[in-house]
Design brief:
The protein has 468 residues and is mainly alpha-helical. The chain has 18 helices and no strands. It has two domains: 257 residues, no CATH class; 175 residues, no CATH class. The relative contact order is 0.13.
Amino acid sequence: MTNFLLVIFSIIPLIFLSLFIYVFYKRGRKFEAVIFFATLIHETILVSYTTIYAVINDFKFEKLLRFEVENYDLLKVILIENIFIIFFLVPFLFQLKAKSISFESASPKIYKFFALISFLGVFVYLYQLINRPSIEQIVDSYANSGLPESSNKFVSFFTITFQHASIIIASILSIRGKNEFYPKKYQYIGIFMLISVLIMVLFSGIRGGLIYTAEFVLLISILKKKKKPIFIMLLLLILFIPLNNILLTKIRPISEEIAKEGGVTTTAVVNIVSTIFTSVNDRKEESPSIFESLCERAQGPRNSVALIKQYDQGLSQDLSIYKGAFFVFVPRFIMDRPVYGSSSDSFEDAGIFKVMQLNYDATFINMGPLLASAHAYWEGGYLGVAIIALLTSFFWSLILKFSYKIPPFLGLVFCLLTCCALLIDGFITIFYPLYSFIGVFWKSLLPLYLFYIIYFKIKIPKLIFYRK
């Protein structure tokens, strides 16, 4: 009976999200439809499929955790996920007023602005590739300050601000709508940016970059009604597990060598060449099936059991995590604030690191995926789930209301950028721990909008609460 309920309750969120996608798209509220669709992909692959696979295969991967996970433990995780999603979606029922926006009538100047951001994105990714810190530097940085610091604070801030925004904007430039008219060179700039990202993904081993880049192109192709890119991106997303296995076997050694040498050096290049030829031969074990590999990597539901048990044992998360998020922009030598996402001055107490320690006895520099609903339960039990879901929904309502008041393409960038608040498993979603939305506002949304204001030399539009 428990297994049957697991399957049923893992499917219910997909039904709700599908209904909301249909209703909002019919009413012309395309921003909501896009972010709900992205979340539907996330929930389908990383929550529902993983849960159903666990039931069918007698909880194969759940049995590998440090402590025993029963089917009723996973059922509690899924029930909490359902409660969180319901409380999140209810406020949207009061935001069904029809909208009419067009993605084919943008100002020519906005394309110039986007081309500039894409160029900046190319330099951001090339800088990350060439100046990647060594493994020893990463470990030392985490151990001493709890936060990996760049020697160049401006470059570090610049990288955080434009890392994901540049990919979204490059996707917009790359996919030309039927009635869009802008210079071809801007489209080429967008394509060049996406190629640069692909190179960074291949050489860094960050397989999630391949996934969310494909998602951005897919979502923008849907809005611009371009069938060919839609088909290609869907195919790529379907095949991402085999691609991940190839990357893990053949490309990951490149990433490891670059990290070892602390960037692209002569020694790294020489070692990479020899490593590529030996990595496949050294891998003797049989590769898992596509379905098994997908479930193995989709750790969110089973990882979340640890946080729920922490709260049930009286070890809840300290709400001071929000102090670190609200004041993330304040240098720590000025304010003794907690590390971002943590209740202390160490990343060890952040949920994304805690689940790896509790479940796999991993070192504290390893992070893993978790469900936003489980993080909310860790903060305040069932009441915390309801309150944090409503607050998250309120935050999204502000972002969406503001996005409809600015140029459509820029509004789309803001919505998709908010869906990147805490990318761990590669798939974008509207569900993240609440503190991460505060962080993405300070680190990405606000800087990008200020950059937009400076570029256009315009006045700040009327407040989002303004009504005619």
